[in-house]
Amino acid sequence: MKILPTLNLRSVSMDDAQALFLWRNDPDTRRNSINTEPVAWEGHVAWLTKSLGMPTRKLYVAEVGGTPVGTVRADNENGIEELSWTVAPEARGKGFGKMMVLQFVQEKLRGEKIIARIKDGNPASAAIAKALGLSPGPAEDNTATWR
């Protein structure tokens, strides 16, 4: 029997700015993001500062053994939580993405309606959306909204 590591979710703080910046600008992350452009440090800090003050945004870092392995976010608009997540490059391929998103939905959203926008050609995120019980809608601009 495989023993799964314990994953902890904690709120993001400004202390996480550097890690989030590196993850966001990782080439694989950018390729699978809605906005594929590199993010400048100043813009990232402004985004994070604004994000931490938004009551409609939930933003968490996932850690395993005290080591950050990814981030997961939900933005509430009209009672619908739009999910977004990033797995740290060094943590990919280990199942942490699925673990952190499922745990986030169970612990932080508690039955709220969720969606995720996923680009075509991103099978890892599509598998996570399927694990959440979501199904893809028609794609627009190579991106499907999973409900």
TrEMBL record:
Family annotation (SUPFAM superfamilies): Acyl-CoA N-acyltransferases (Nat) (SSF55729)
GO molecular-function term, one example from the UniProt record: acyltransferase activity, transferring groups other than amino-acyl groups
Pfam family membership, one: Acetyltransf_3
Protein name in UniProt: N-acetyltransferase domain-containing protein
Residue intervals of the N-acetyltransferase domain: 7-147
InterPro entries found in the cross-reference section: Acyl_CoA_acyltransferase, GNAT_dom
Organism field: Candidatus Adlerbacteria bacterium RIFCSPLOWO2_01_FULL_54_21b
Gene3D superfamilies the record matches: 3.40.630.30
